[in-house]
């Protein structure tokens, strides 16, 4: 027989009785199971104390009390009571499963894994832990609801902790836990996490701001009472039954507004507002009409989140009215069901099971959102962390597809973000877009209510530049994945050619190397396949000479030495082979290549001034390359044309370039101080040196042209 658990002190006993009284919504069998869980936790933590000196059991009891406030099921409450037993007391998952059921054991195990990973200051560790949290959320939302309750109680009782640790935990709460609470629709908890963290990080600022808020509230007491009375009378006169109550802006949100918009406290006008709760949706719109006839509305400040709910399920009508003495008053109008979801979000699924279907629908939406987050995972935790943090921020714009479907995207999202939100293939092949039936660039930021149509092209593909302006984690992740895959494929092809060339120069025909030698090479390199070894060579992570000698050291190969070996390139190999922007080589130019670690091979012209020093000091880094003939490919280069300053001369030069079968990509002009001559800087497209010669001949024949030259590495 097990000894009885240590009796808690009186105040703890009182807290336990209050906790038991709050379980009246559960059947007696569940209450008995919860009592057993409390007894088990009290015994397991009997000799432990918190840093404040309180018995440790007060913490799991407080967390379970928060879970009970959301009217969650018995398994969740048991897990909240037991959440530290596996981590701190040596209780096993098997033991918990036998005593309280498999589901409770799974929840406690998920929470223990989260507890093990108190976020370190190192970004990679923090990111990896964050990923684990999202995976736990995707498996069972209750894990994160209990974790949020745990964090809420912890930051409220941190006075005994070291100041630097307090600030670190508070910052992490602001950065991770508060946005998760908001995304799950737990607005009340979100505000409390923010305000408590704010007080811990900036205690003096919080105190000054709280005092200013109390004084402002005292000064406006009569005015606010008068406005509330006017609203109540107007709604009653319109035949509407409504609850009207004041709503204060949280300390942290006032601080953020002052900081972001560089405002003083007196300039933050929407500190106070009112919430109107009515019976049904039609009454919301009737109440809105009544209030707009009572006080004048501020144009552009009306938002209908009932017709278009926020992604976390939030629904309300928002309007700003000009009250007495020109005081702006923000009013939110919603039904009781909407109010429940607005306060408790996903948790309202357990709280108000009889009330409405929207909370259950919200749970399904939340699971879909979590799954979409996990889809965007890549091997790099830090990238994943940054991507998802963007998706946790609440500001959203609502965009329409051509078929009228509404899509929510973060503030600042671009056409590319929208394309990837529609489908990965649409994003990968988007080439242009129409916004409200007008053509627009892909980097255009979208605004609320925009109608967006994506134009795709089979040959289009993601551009690395997109990463500089996309906003959503999904788009960023898909672009990175495409670029990595493409780069690896191209780098593997280049690496294979470089290794083949190296082997031939050593007098070995690659086909004569037995399969066992290749297998040994792959194993020794720590890669999974030969393609990965080739990709490393193409990206400059491995030298082809070292890899070739490693192969040859294992076997005696047949020697056949061909003469005059150089690497042949087309110039369209993509990211694996890049044409240097300084000298812009074209077919026909004598060229030389250099492998740059991590970015593949860069091709320069032999006489490029940029590489002169490197070629003489580090000759081993340079590889002989030559052009392989190919039809149809065009290459960009720059030419300078000096002309007499006469009317229509630019048109004449452009016509000559066009007649020679070349495209003009860009043109810029520089006039000399006396304005006698003008220098035209063209970027044109040509097929090879012969084509360039034809273009230059056509320009040189014009009488107005005094000088023409090709630009190389900044020199003409």
UniProtKB/TrEMBL annotation:
Residues covered by the HD domain: 56-155
GO molecular function: any one?
GTP diphosphokinase activity
Q: Which residues form the TGS domain?
A: 395-456
Q: Which residues form the ACT domain?
A: 638-713
The EC category is: transferase
According to its UniProt record, the EC number is 2.7.6.5
Q: Does the keyword Transferase apply?
A: yes
Q: What does this protein do?
A: In eubacteria ppGpp (guanosine 3'-diphosphate 5'-diphosphate) is a mediator of the stringent response that coordinates a variety of cellular activities in response to changes in nutritional abundance.
**PANTHER family in the record:** BIFUNCTIONAL (P)PPGPP SYNTHASE_HYDROLASE SPOT, GUANOSINE-3',5'-BIS DIPHOSPHATE 3'-PYROPHOSPHOHYDROLASE
Q: What is this protein called?
A: Bifunctional (P)ppGpp synthetase/guanosine-3',5'-bis(Diphosphate) 3'-pyrophosphohydrolase
Organism per entry: Azonexus hydrophilus
């Amino acid at each position: 027989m097990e000894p009885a658990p240590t009796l808690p002190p009186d105040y703890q006993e009182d807290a336990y009785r209050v906790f038991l009284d709050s379980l009246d919504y559960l059947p007696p069998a569940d209450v008995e199971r919860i009592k057993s869980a409390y007894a088990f936790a009290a015994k397991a933590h009997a000799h432990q104390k918190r840093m404040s000196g309180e018995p440790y059991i007060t913490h799991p009891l407080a967390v379970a009390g928060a879970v009970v406030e959301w009217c969650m099921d018995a398994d969740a409450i048991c897990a909240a009571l037991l959440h530290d037993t596996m981590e701190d007391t040596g209780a096993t998952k098997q033991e918990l499963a036998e005593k309280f059921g498999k589901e409770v054991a799974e929840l406690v195990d998920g929470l223990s894994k989260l507890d093990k990973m108190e976020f370190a200051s190192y970004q990679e560790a923090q990111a990896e832990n964050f990923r684990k949290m999202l995976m736990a959320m995707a498996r069972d939302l209750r894990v994160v609801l209990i974790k949020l309750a745990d964090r809420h109680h912890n930051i409220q009782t941190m006075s005994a902790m070291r100041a630097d640790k307090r600030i670190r935990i508070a910052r992490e709460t602001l950065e991770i836990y508060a946005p998760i609470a908001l995304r799950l629709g737990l607005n009340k908890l979100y505000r409390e996490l923010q305000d408590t963290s704010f007080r811990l990080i900036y205690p003096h600022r919080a105190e000054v701001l709280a005092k200013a808020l109390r004084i402002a509230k005292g000064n406006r007491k009569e005015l606010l009472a008068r406005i509330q009375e006017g609203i109540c009378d107007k709604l009653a006169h319109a035949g509407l039954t409504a609850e009207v109550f004041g709503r204060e802006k949280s300390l942290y949100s006032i601080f953020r507004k002052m900081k972001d918009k560089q405002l003083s406290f007196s300039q933050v006008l929407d500190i106070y507002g009112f919430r109107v709760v009515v019976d049904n949706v039609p009454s919301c719109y009737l109440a809105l009409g009544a209030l707009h006839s009572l006080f004048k509305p501020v144009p552009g400040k009306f938002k209908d989140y009932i017709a278009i709910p926020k992604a976390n399920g939030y629904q309300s009508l928002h309007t700003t009215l000009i009250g007495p003495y020109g005081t702006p008053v923000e009013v939110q109008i919603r039904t009781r069901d909407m109010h429940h979801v607005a306060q408790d979000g996903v948790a309202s699924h357990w709280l108000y099971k009889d009330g409405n279907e929207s909370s259950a629908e919200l749970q399904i939406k939340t699971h879909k959102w979590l799954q979409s987050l996990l889809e965007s995972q890549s091997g790099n935790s830090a990238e994943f962390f940054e991507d998802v943090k963007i998706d946790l921020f609440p500001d959203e714009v609502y965009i329409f597809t051509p078929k009228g479907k509404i899509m929510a995207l973060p503030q600042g999202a671009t056409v590319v973000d929208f394309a990837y939100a529609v489908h990965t293939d649409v994003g990968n092949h988007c080439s242009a877009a129409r916004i409200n039936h007008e053509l627009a660039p892909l980097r255009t930021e979208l605004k609320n209510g925009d109608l967006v149509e994506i134009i795709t092209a089979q040959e289009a593909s993601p551009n690395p530049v997109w990463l500089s302006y996309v906003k959503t984690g999904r788009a960023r992740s898909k672009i990175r994945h495409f670029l990595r895959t493409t780069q690896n494929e191209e780098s593997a092809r280049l690496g294979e050619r470089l290794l083949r060339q190296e082997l031939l120069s050593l007098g070995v025909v690659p086909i004569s190397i037995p399969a066992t030698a290749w297998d040994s090479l792959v194993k020794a390199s720590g890669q999974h396949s030969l393609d990965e070894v080739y990709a490393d060579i193409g990206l400059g992570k491995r030298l082809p000479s070292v890899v070739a000698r490693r192969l040859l050291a294992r076997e005696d190969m047949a020697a056949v030495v061909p003469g005059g070996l150089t690497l042949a390139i087309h110039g369209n190999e993509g990211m694996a082979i890049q044409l240097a922007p300084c000298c812009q080589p074209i077919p026909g130019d004598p060229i030389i290549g250099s492998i740059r670690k991590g970015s593949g091979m860069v091709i320069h012209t032999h006489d490029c001034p940029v590489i002169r020093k490197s070629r003489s000091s580090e000759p081993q880094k340079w590889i002989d390359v030559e052009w392989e003939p190919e039809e149809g490919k065009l290459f960009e280069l720059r030419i300078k044309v000096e002309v007499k300053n006469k009317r229509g001369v630019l048109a004449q030069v452009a016509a000559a370039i066009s007649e020679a079968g070349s495209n003009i990509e860009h043109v810029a002009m520089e006039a000399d101080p006396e304005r006698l001559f003008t220098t035209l800087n063209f970027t044109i497209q040509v097929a090879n040196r012969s084509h360039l010669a034809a273009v230059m001949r056509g320009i040189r024949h014009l009488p107005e042209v005094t000088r023409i030259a090709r630009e190389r590495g900044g020199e003409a």
